[in-house]
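Hi there, hope your week has been kind to you so far. Please have a think about how the structure follows from the sequence. I've dropped the whole record in just underneath, so have a look:

_____
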Amino acid sequence: MKKQVFVVPHSHWDREWYFSIEDSNTILSENMAELLTFLEQTPNFPTYTFDGQLSVIEDYLKHAPEDVERLKKLIKNGRLHIGPWYTQGDTLLLQTESIIRNLLIGKQGAEAFGHSMDIGYLPDIFGQNAYLPSIFKRFGITHSILQRGLYHEQVNKDLNFQWIAPNGEAIPTNNIYFGYGPGKFLASDEQYVTQTLLPILEALEKMNPKDAPLLLPAGGDQVFVRKNFPKVIEELNQRDWPYEFILSDYESYMEKAWMTPHETKINGELIACQKSRIHNTIRSQRMDIKQKNAQIEEKIYQQLEPLGVLSQELGGNYPQNWMNSCLKLLFDVHAHDSIGGCNSDETNREIMNRLYKIERIVDGYLNILKKQISRGILAEEEGVVAFNLLPKKVNKQLSFIIFTKESSIQLTDLLGKALPQVIRNQEYISGGTQVKVTAEGEVQVELPGYYRTEIAAEVPFEGFGYRKLLIQNSLNERLASVENTKIKNEFYELEVVDGMLEVRRYDGAVKKQLFDFENMADAGDSYDFSPVENGLANYSTKFKLIDIKTSSQESEMILETTVAVAKELANWNQLTEEMTIQTTIRLVKGSDMIYLQHQMENRTNDHRVRLRFLGENTEGLSYGDQGYSLLERKNHNPYLANWREEGFAEAPQAIFPLERFVTINEKEGNVALFTKGLKEYEATDDALYLTLFRGVGLLGKDDLAWRPGRASGINNKVVATPDAQMHGTLTFDLAYRWVNEELHPQKLYAAAEKFATQQLSYQLQTLNSFEERLDRFELPQPAGLSNLPTEKIGPSLPENLFVSGMKKAEKSDKIILRVFNPQIAPVEIPAHLSQTGTLDEKELGTIKELPGKDFVTIIMDKAGE
């Protein structure tokens, strides 16, 4: 019996890269138009796969709307396969909620065209998120196909395996070992058959059980349909050899391959770089893109969507179409090359423009919803509204911007009791002039000035909702400079001692130097960091104390240090320049986090800057959060010693991604770093490194120290990318936590929750119409948002459950609440939150408890029920 070879004709569509999205879409218009005509006129070409991205179809239809019915007919009849993604997003650089939402929009959109491909298709992204098997299964997707991230020994006996998520959920998966293009130039001539095709088939046979069919993807980047494939298949099948070729699709292959079970099991995240490059330092490339993306994800998932739920619950609007429009733009950014930043400068500028556009829309709707809700609460009264958009009991410091005619200002509850608070900053603003039209013509009228005050106040919430606060004309404590060398709270005391930043913990433990900065020359490209030959790192000088500010609620320390840098890569060891770094450290009453902000002016080319936190790591392990739990990783990759001899595509450096935080157990307690957009770390026996940025000026470079051979991406052409040198002012925000306890997932995720911005405020006022960009415009008031109570308290989750997302359902007014349990032990689910659903928001049964490292989608009729 002949071995079946499933040939899958397809296009892998990079929407932007060294070319622009406009380049891609103009080519798309030509290719797709011809593909549709060809499929309609050629019934013996059974099916074609268009990369699993709905966005490509939408891009085509923007300029060919007349073809929508033709597309639907071909998709419904299985002639053209699309979905389940909206775009092929990098799954290691995003909030996991973005992965789910990308699939939600992609799968539902593809189904509206007639069919969504039943494959979790991952042909080209740089590593796989550990929770993808579970996410796929909960969308009703039955199989997965992927290229990168596996060690040869994992699949050398069977390319089909059960891929298992940390929560134990598994999906049948195939590794396209030779990538998505081994059959790209499929032909029947003798030279191609003997020199190319047979060696590939023989290698695939060795990595498949005897009776299993073989998979031969036959496509490539931006390729046009190979019209000769039916003829080639016919000619190949006329040969006297042990193969039968079938022109088919991925669904048909996986159905046939899994008619018999496969025993191999592979767990968790897939980031091995033996056969395919993973580019594990791409996560610090073009940090401006990654930081802005993280900021926007937080604004959408932790602010705008739950605020929209609150608005709908109160009788107002939920701007769903605008939100989905923003998400689609965001998912364009999430395409693996786009979020990776490994593009031409022209493309990266367009990505940043896209992010700024999304941010303007999101900020606009945050402004609108806050104002409409606040008008319903305050009417024309003076006052301010504090929002808690996390469905949990919270007591947290919240930032307010308040405008008043008097400089004396204090926030109180409705009984007049002052909140714990401090004025961080206050400035007097001239009222300017106003033009008035009179019978004698236009005249300018002087307006009185006012004060803009930044206040940090501790506001308790019993659950999801809001509280009205009062603004009193009363003296308030101010954060003020003092003659001192230290700051402290209940948990830490920080002091500069002989130029070292010393931290003393509440139990007496001391670190003589909390952190410093590492600089190293980077001879790499937009994909990978590369050390220069014999290159060594150099570290920042002693800290200089600039200022200390204290109050009863928080204290602040400003430091400066310098790092010696080279003028250019050619003279990397001549450290003749200095980069000054200013660090602001903040301690807050009641918080065991040390808040850090680092700002620097980068004028240097081809280097990498990392934060180095010193401490003895006795376990030899680190734990990065990903999806809904912590992933354990070894500080030393055992393959590193012989990676070249074993044919690795890259050096398997123990440099890892993180979603929101990384943690390690040190000799004297647990250390964690919480970040906003910083996505790359390395743990060693004596330090934890967090990459701030790397600046390089080339897209594509041959023979790097950690990546031998050809340049990644485009061959035989080097594209200059001066923007990727990251010149200019760079700012990085993070928090550090050092406690006398072993690793505790619940406490760590609670700390990450506190570090996120899920509490907002709004003052209804007429003094300033520019702080919130849309306040200067007239705005209608929804009829339902009137006479609102002064306080609204919605659901409150148990403290050991954590929120991934809270939104309105796509096809109803029900509320979707996604929660997870990062611990090993199960957590009881409150009865009023027991109704569950699939990830595509179809109702399932009820749930009583959530197992460890698991997540659940809860469907509620109302946010308060």
